[in-house]
Design a protein that fits this description.
Layout lengths: L4 H14 L6 H11 L6 H22 L1 H12 L6 H31 L7 H20 L14 H13 L7 H11 L4 H24 L7 H27 L3 H13 L4
């Protein structure tokens, strides 16, 4: 099904706003596609959700431009880089590799479900609801962060956070929610947790689109409208919503929303 300009604009706006709060932007995209646009193909749902992440990828790239430029400079001057930056670079590299491996395995598993299950808007809503429950429980477990910063990063942090980010390929598991929560539970401070979470998203979103979407990637005007909407709304809301997500625990909101999604199957 070819999406209209209005449909892609709606999806882009939703992506731009929901990316920065721990409610799973992929879940929002998938729910709209399956329930309002009648798209139920697992492959199309996953690839479309990932496609719209390119808009917020560009927004995060602009917002964190100083961090990104510094990391790139240090990467090419790695031998003379201080230990804190080396730890950050190693963390991002390890987490990206682990995320990629876990993500590919889960995506292939999702694709195989279509051979044994007939997918409809209701069944997809139920499945997303179950995964949102997991996101809600993670959010409700959040406690105040500790005092650890980038200089305290270890190899096992990269492996564990990569695993968490890889799981977030499942629509309903909030990538930002699960990674920030994990960093807080590992006693990193709030600012460091948010910064590392969004820096982690940059390479995996870019690589994911190259791997999954490049073969059939044609820059249609319609698709570009969606990316542009995600970029603009993402850039306009990133600062406010990141601050909001630090002050508000979205766990109960996500929990109630998840229950409603699962109950919708009975209607």
């Amino acid at each position: 099904m070819e999406l209209t300009i209005l449909q892609t604009l709606i999806l882009g706006i939703v992506q731009g706003i929901t990316e920065w709060i721990p409610i799973s932007s992929s879940a929002a995209i998938v729910l709209i596609l399956s329930n309002f646009y009648q798209i139920t193909s697992t492959e199309i749902l996953v690839r479309t959700a990932l496609f719209f992440h390119m808009g917020t990828f560009l927004a995060a790239l602009v917002y964190f431009r100083k961090d990104v430029v510094e990391l790139i400079k240090n990467l090419f001057n790695y031998k003379y880089t201080d230990q804190t930056q080396k730890r950050t670079i190693r963390f991002l590299f390890i987490s990206t590799v682990v995320s990629g491996i876990v993500g590919i395995v889960l995506i292939k598993t999702l694709y195989s479900f279509e051979d044994v299950i007939t997918l409809t808007g209701k069944t997809i809503s139920f499945a997303v609801g179950v995964l949102l429950l997991f996101t809600a429980l993670i959010q409700l477990k959040i406690r105040q962060g500790g005092i650890k910063r980038e200089r305290n990063l270890k190899m096992n942090d990269g492996i564990f956070l990569g695993l968490m980010q890889g799981i977030a390929v499942l629509p309903g598991i909030s990538r930002s929610g699960i990674t920030v929560s994990t960093l807080l539970l590992k006693k990193f401070d709030d600012t460091t947790a948010l910064r590392l979470s969004f820096l982690m998203s940059l390479p995996i979103v870019l690589i994911g689109n190259i791997v999954l979407n490049l073969e059939d990637f044609v820059f249609s005007t319609t698709g570009l409208y969606g990316i542009l909407a995600a970029f603009v709304f993402g850039l306009l809301t990133i600062h406010t919503l990141m601050k909001l997500s630090k002050k508000i625990n979205f766990g109960w909101f996500i929990f109630i929303f998840a229950i409603l999604m699962m109950a919708s199957v009975l209607i």
